[in-house]
Amino acid sequence: MTLTPAELTSAVSGGIGTSPQRPDGNLKVRGEFAYASDLWHEDMIWGATLRSPHPYARITSVDITEALKVPGVYAVLTHSDVPGRNLYGLEHKDQPVLAVDVVRYQGEPIALVGADHPETALRAMKKIVVTYDVLEPVVDMETAVDDTPLHPGGNLVRHVPIRRGAQDVTADVVVTGRYEVGMQDQAFLGPESGLAVPAVDGSVDLYIATQWLHVDRDQIAAALGLPQEQVRLTLSGVGGAFGGREDLSMQVHACLLALHTGKPVKMVYNREESFYGHVHRHPAVLYYEHGADHTGKLVYVRTRMYLDGGAYASSTPAVVANAATLGVGPYEVDNVTVDAYGVYTNNPPCGAMRGFGAVQAGFAYESQMDKLAEALGMSPVDVRVRNAMTEGSVMPTGQVVDSAAPVAQLLKLVQDKPLPAGTSSDIRELPGGVSNTTHGEGVVRGVGYAVGIKNICFSEGYDDYSTARVRVSMVNGSLAASVHTAACEVGQGLVTIMQQIVRTELGIQRVTVLPMDTTIGNGGSTSASRQTYVTGGAVKAACAVVRSRLDGRTDIGSEVIDETVEWRHRATEPLDPETGQGNAHVQYGFAAHRAVVDVDVELGLVRVVSLDCAQDVGRALNPQAVVGQIQGGSAQGLGLAVMEEIQTSGGKVRNPSFTDYLIPTVLDMPPMSIDVLELADPHAPYGIRGVGEPPTISSTPAIVAAIRAATGLALTRVPVRPEHLTGT
Length: 728
Prior knowledge:
This is Molybdopterin-dependent oxidoreductase. Residues 30-136 form the Aldehyde oxidase/xanthine dehydrogenase a/b hammerhead domain. InterPro entries: Ald_Oxase/Xan_DH_a/b, Ald_Oxase/Xan_DH_a/b_sf, Ald_Oxase/xanthine_DH-like, AldOxase/xan_DH_MoCoBD1, AldOxase/xan_DH_MoCoBD2, AldOxase/xan_DH_Mopterin-bd_sf. Helix 8 (316-325) runs parallel beside helix 9 and helix 9 packs parallel to helix 15 (694-711). 24% of the residues lie in helices and 26% in strands. Strand 16, helix 8 and strand 17 form a beta-alpha-beta unit. The protein is built from 16 helices and 28 strands. By secondary structure, the protein is an alpha+beta fold. The chain has a seven-stranded mixed beta sheet with strand order 3-7-1-14-11-12-13, sandwiched between helices. Strands 9-17-16-15-10-28 form a six-stranded mixed beta sheet. It has a four-stranded mixed beta sheet with strand order 18-23-24-27, with helices on both faces.
């Protein structure tokens, strides 16, 4: 007979619904985990990248003569040394591996150096002479479309229009606003790093910190002029990602140097180079108009959004689509007009970051909902509940939300939580108090609410799937299992989830997660809150096939049961290019926050006192990890609200360091009371709903709403800076 899932799991611990210890947890806590920057190889040399100091310039000459004379230098490479296609990109192949005749952003790679020591490589790099004809950069996202074309075809990357219902309807109460979102960095703690090892047959192995092994491989192979099977990638320890590793950084560069010199090549960015070497969150300008009747019911929403993609496309087309399709928020609106534009500029390239388009829109539409509440004389929660989406609601794209959408419930959960005690008399708990800058004078308190919506998994007809191989054999008289995927563990805990699924499905305690690499089929990107859904679905499906072969056996002798499954979620479809209609998304996730802040209106300092959250996760496969994701996403939202911004002037980055680019520390994060709802999605494995991104969307506007409540200021831009609060 075949064992039932209940019988299979009765003898094991650490299955789904529990929070077992992470297999990499102890090593990370003790500082013994090997990250990509720890890689080493005998006879290894070091690579370095020469980058443009200008946001926009023509290259008139590159002279590498003196650099080649530096003792210890093995190679100096330019674009002419790229054997294959000198262009790459996630959605558009528009970014040079090494610049040819023009640079389009400060930090664009121009030349590579391979040397016996990193200091030698840096000395040689300084001897490369590049002459430029400096050009006037295009930096304004609102006027970029009509400015100097930076690419063939102009500066418009994508325009997504959405038209639903009447386009000329009027309303009793109308509020408008213009909102800005600054450029946020993923600020992962482990810089870009990797090790390329050449093989005698002309192939190459790359050990790399990344988010998407197969897409990296495909772009690298094209640049090297090699068949894909001659480029092998293995995931190395990843010190955070959040979207910033979805694009290539030093992958091709390390491989080029390795194949050219015949030696293993290690590349590790320092923090400043990391700021130049990866994409960031799109800054945005968003215009909104909300119309409602006197009861607070929304009649229409109209918005025009501009998202600055910087010098190259990266994932701008998808980010623009997310901002557009989610641009009215988790609310029912019959009449919608959306125009979202993604543009090229000479600002730093922007691409994927946690929340992916929904963050920018979320700040704007939630600010509008607060403004509408004030105009109607309603509470911020009541106006949101009045318009809250539910299961069966219709999105602006015409898609029906066919699983739980507990928007009102989430809002009421955070509203009903006890408020923290009043402003403290302990100066250490006041804004700026540890600097002895205040004793409570000028400190006021505010409370704010926000709720957000995020699509889960890839959208618009993308063939989104993952591959999993599950293997069972006898080890020392007991069944043992291994699971192999190419899905990247970037710190989110996928390695733990895969073990939990195999234990649950097969009733086998001992589960080994094999290294992620390209010897197995594509696992897709670790982004879009998709890996537990898609790779978890693939592991579950592979286990089902293995279980059918086990057929109740507890002793399989020397036999090895080995099954590989490619698993897809239900199909999506492209948006109609004229109306933006279509079933573009797989699933929607929802989260709500209530923020309490103390603001020193004299100094312009903010302390977030509490940041409570309620989120529907479908089913918590690992409750502790779910709470950790909500806490982490909320921390990044706090950063965007009050401190994090890559500041640029004329296309140049002014603060490429953690000295001047500030991120929240443990001292900045307030207590969080978190309610986790488990309203299963019938279309998803185990009923799960992606967790990682929704809390980033609602935390930022909730904090800013609380600052507004405390100060009475409009605050239409994030991050909120001290000068925004003091008027200085």
